[in-house]
């Protein structure tokens, strides 16, 4: 992103060159709240609720998100996806990956029942999940193809002789299998000269990164590919907010990632392998779904990509593919009473605010919201100290009464208008009215999910 001085300079120039209407505070709020959603997680003791929001920069938006609850286990799956090279890969991944994850984590008896119902036509690829927010289908004409791939995956899971492994293994397998299916669908459609070939190829040659959280009671697993982030908000013993990053970005600033890639390719390729902090000088994330031009052999690309897109489809530097993987990095964390919330967000947020500021803002927002609701005591027997903590939180919240009830919207407002001296209405008004050809100079698509935990449910019995 541009430095603060250059950003301000561009804002002044753009205002001079374009007729920019200054928004009223209510108009700003309307825009910020357009895509917000709050869902109360009934029947889940650890999650109190989660807030989501999204603010596009690209047209159409290349970010996606998903929230789902597993019907058989009650576990939650929440994800944020950031597309590049178009929105196709992020769109197809966000709608299909949760079902692959749910199937991967299903106990064998239920998995066999699910397979029988799929083959009988009584279940589909989304039937293992409850979706609090309806997700638009990727493309209606691809539904049959996607159902066929999902059925094949469930059959493979049932035919495995080994006992199911841990959650991390299930998450990793689902990520890799969906990526394999994206590749296979594109190649097979091209070989058949299928009318659907253009749609499957768009999903294959574009790409996306993803960060998915799986929450089962107090057990939190994260599967991350690319540069979305998950940060835990912790209230320490001194009642100060502490940001605990739970994921690492897979880019050239990650020394372990750089070493992983360089060790997998001949030393003769190193001069062009990571150039200008990008893979082959072109791609910033070093792990991603799709982007098969960094994964397929030159022969496959000439046969599949060039046939549809024309021209020379092969990068000159393509010598020893694959250079890219969709294998996620798995993180496990056992939630404790001091863990109060989890923030999942695309890099559009983290480019504007550091994790420490994000956690502080959400923590203060949570305290501020307590002044808007009736006093609620813990669900179980409570001590005098616990009651005192609740009353003290309400007292602190009086001075931080939020403008937005939704924590994700609260973060959006501060990401776009926060300054050292407080919120700046003029700044956010300009950022929200920039023409399409300028807005990407100042910010990316921003997608945020804030998962609020119930601290009483995390306390030992």
What is the typical, i.e. mean, pLDDT? 88
Number of domains: 2
Low-confidence stretches: none
Count the helices. How many? 17
> Fraction of residues in helices?
40-55%
Second-tier CATH architecture of the largest domain: 4-Layer Sandwich
CATH class category name of the largest domain: Alpha Beta
Main sheet: strands, sense, barrel: 7 strands, antiparallel
Would you tell me which CATH topology of the largest domain applies?
Answer: Phosphatase 2c, domain 1
What does this structure look like?
The protein is α+β, with helices and mostly antiparallel strands. The chain folds into two domains: 4-250 and 285-452, Phosphatase 2c, domain 1, CATH 3.60.40.10; 251-284, no CATH class. It has helices at 4-17, 25-32, 88-104, 108-120, 143-159, 167-191, 197-205, 255-263, 270-273, 298-309, 347-350, 355-369, 384-397, 407-417, 425-433, 436-439, 455-458; strands at 37-40, 47-55, 63-70, 76-84, 129-130, 207-216, 219-225, 229-235, 241-245, 274-275, 278-279, 289-290, 329-334, 339-345, 418-419, 422-423, 446-453. α6 (167-191) crosses α10 and α12 (355-369) crosses α14. The relative contact order is 0.16. The mean pLDDT is 88.
């Amino acid at each position: 992103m541009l430095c603060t001085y250059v950003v301000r300079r561009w804002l002044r120039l753009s205002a001079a060159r374009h007729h920019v209407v200054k928004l009223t505070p209510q108009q700003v709020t309307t825009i910020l709240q357009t895509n917000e959603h709050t869902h109360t997680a009934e029947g889940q003791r650890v999650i109190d609720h989660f807030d989501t929001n999204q603010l596009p920069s690209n047209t159409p938006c290349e970010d996606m998100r998903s929230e789902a609850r597993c019907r058989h286990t009650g576990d939650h799956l929440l994800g944020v996806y950031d597309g590049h090279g178009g929105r196709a890969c992020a769109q197809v991944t966000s709608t299909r990956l949760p079902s692959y994850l749910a199937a991967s984590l299903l106990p064998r008896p239920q998995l066999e029942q699910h397979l029988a119902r799929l083959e009988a036509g009584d279940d589909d690829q989304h039937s293992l999940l409850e979706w609090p927010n309806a997700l638009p289908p990727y493309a209606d004409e691809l539904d049959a193809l996607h159902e066929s791939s999902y059925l094949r995956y469930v059959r493979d899971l049932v035919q495995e002789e080994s006992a199911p492994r841990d959650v991390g293994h299930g998450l990793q397998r689902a990520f890799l299998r969906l990526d394999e299916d994206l590749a296979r669908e594109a190649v097979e459609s091209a070989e058949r000269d299928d009318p659907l070939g253009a749609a499957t190829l768009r999903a294959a040659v574009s790409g996306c990164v993803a960060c998915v959280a799986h929450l089962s009671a107090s057990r939190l697993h994260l599967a991350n590919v690319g540069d979305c982030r998950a940060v835990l908000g912790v209230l320490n013993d001194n009642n100060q907010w502490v940001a605990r990053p739970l994921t690492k970005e897979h880019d050239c600033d990650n020394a372990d990632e750089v070493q992983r890639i360089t060790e997998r390719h001949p030393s003769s390729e190193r001069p062009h392998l990571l150039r200008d902090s990008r893979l082959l000088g072109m791609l910033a994330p070093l792990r991603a779904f799709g982007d098969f031009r960094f994964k397929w052999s030159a022969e496959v690309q000439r046969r599949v990509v060039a046939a549809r897109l024309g021209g020379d489809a092969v990068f000159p530097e393509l010598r020893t593919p694959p250079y890219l993987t969709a294998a996620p990095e798995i993180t496990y964390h056992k939630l404790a009473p001091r863990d109060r919330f989890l923030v999942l967000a695309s890099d559009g947020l983290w480019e504007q605010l550091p994790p420490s500021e994000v956690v502080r803002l959400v923590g203060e927002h949570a305290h501020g919201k307590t002044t808007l609701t009736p006093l609620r005591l813990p669900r179980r027997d409570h001590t005098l100290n616990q009651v005192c903590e609740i009353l003290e939180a309400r007292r602190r919240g009086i001075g931080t009464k939020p403008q937005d009830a939704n924590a994700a919207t609260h973060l959006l407002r501060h990401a776009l208008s926060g300054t050292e001296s407080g919120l700046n209405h003029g700044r956010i008004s300009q950022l929200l009215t920039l023409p399409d050809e300028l807005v990407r100079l100042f910010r990316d698509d921003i997608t945020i999910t804030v998962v609020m935990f119930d601290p009483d449910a995390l306390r030992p019995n």
